[in-house]
Specification:
Number of domains: 1
Pfam families: OEP
Distance between the termini: 72 Å
Radius of gyration: 35 Å
Strand content: 5-15%
Shape: elongated
Helix content: 55-70%
Number of helices: 7
Low-confidence stretches: 37-50, 292-307
Structural class: mainly alpha
Strand order of the largest sheet: 1-2
Family: Belongs to the outer membrane factor (OMF) (TC 1.B.17) family.
CATH class: Mainly Alpha
Organism: Serratia rubidaea
Mean pLDDT: 71
Subcellular location: Cell outer membrane
Largest sheet: 2 strands, antiparallel
Protein name: Probable efflux pump outer membrane protein ttgC
């Protein structure tokens, strides 16, 4: 009898030991990365404590566009719904920490049609179930759900960051193309004036037929370049309108050209470890961590260097 108890105790210890063996906790390496960095080149005020970092471009019109696109873009709204779904699923997964309780009850009443008394029946049942997590399966599910929430949240931030970058990029592209179209128009006006002078000289016999053809060809070249620039500007306008979920014919505020004197703080030296804080990198880390904790050597990758 004593031997059976000893064997049963050893069996329980072996089961708990196996559960500890299959458990592989993800330990993020401790990397000496400062919470923020400052450089003598950019000064301590460079985007310090600013959540609306795009305001540092010193362009109120661009800031207004970015604020609007963050509140109207479908891709960002979809990412927000995915985050909410991941949080709800994580909440359901966490219910395996407590026992499952099932309570049911019922009542019935019957009477014989030929007479006699009625009979009533009442019944109820209560069941309690709990799954022992000997092998760490339930704990792994909870960890996986938690990592999925973090990865989904980083994915949403990455969508927002990409959306901000695309909005600013198209905004500046349109400004540059507006400026180029204006310059090209002035050059085309000069080419037409040159053609008028060459035609007058040709009529007076002071210019050859080749000079006249060259002046006409110059106008054709300018017109082709102008048409190409206008097509590029139209494509950029359409792309910007799509970010706002608008039809292409709905124009957004534009600048007539780029401001060469606009002061924008740019960090000339950024620690390489900052790459590890990017939401796309954090999102991929959160997605991979539940499956391959040993393949996350970002402590070796993001060494302290500067670009």
């Amino acid at each position: 009898m004593r031997q059976r108890k000893t064997l049963a105790l050893l069996g329980c210890l072996m089961l708990s030991g196996c559960g500890a063996l299959v458990k592989s906790e993800y330990q993020q390496p401790q990397v000496a990365v400062p919470a923020q960095w400052r450089t003598e080149i950019t000064g301590p005020a460079y985007l310090a404590g600013s959540e609306r970092w795009w305001d540092s471009f010193n362009d109120p019109q661009l800031s207004q566009l970015i604020t609007r696109v963050l509140s109207s873009n479908n891709d960002l709204a979809k990412a927000g719904l995915q985050l909410q779904q991941a949080r709800l699923e994580a909440g359901l997964t966490n219910t395996n920490l407590t026992p499952d309780v099932t309570l049911s009850g019922g009542a019935s009443n019957s009477k014989n049609v030929r007479g006699g008394g009625a009979s009533e029946d009442y019944h109820s049942s209560l069941s309690l179930s709990y799954e022992l997590d000997l092998w760490g399966k339930l704990a792994r599910r909870r960890e996986q759900a938690s990592w999925l929430v973090q990865a989904t949240e980083q994915d949403r931030q990455n969508v927002a960051l990409t959306l901000i970058g695309n909005t600013a990029d198209y905004y500046w592209q349109i400004a540059r193309l507006n400026q180029q179209v204006d310059v090209q128009q002035r050059m085309m006006d000069n080419a037409r004036e040159t053609l008028r002078l060459v035609q007058a000289r040709h009529a007076a016999g002071a210019a050859s037929q080749i000079e006249l053809l060259q002046a006409r060809q110059s106008i054709i070249d300018r017109e082709n370049q102008q048409q190409n620039l206008q097509q590029q500007r139209e494509a950029a306008r359409n792309a910007l309108a799509i970010l706002f979920n608008n039809s292409p014919d709905m124009r957004q505020p534009e600048r007539p050209g780029l401001d060469a004197e606009q002061e924008v703080p740019i960090a000339a030296s950024v620690p390489l470890a900052v790459i590890g804080r990017r939401p796309d990198v954090q999102g991929r880390k959160g997605a991979c961590a539940p499956h391959w904790p040993a393949l996350m050597p970002h402590g070796l990758i993001f060494i302290r260097r500067s670009l």
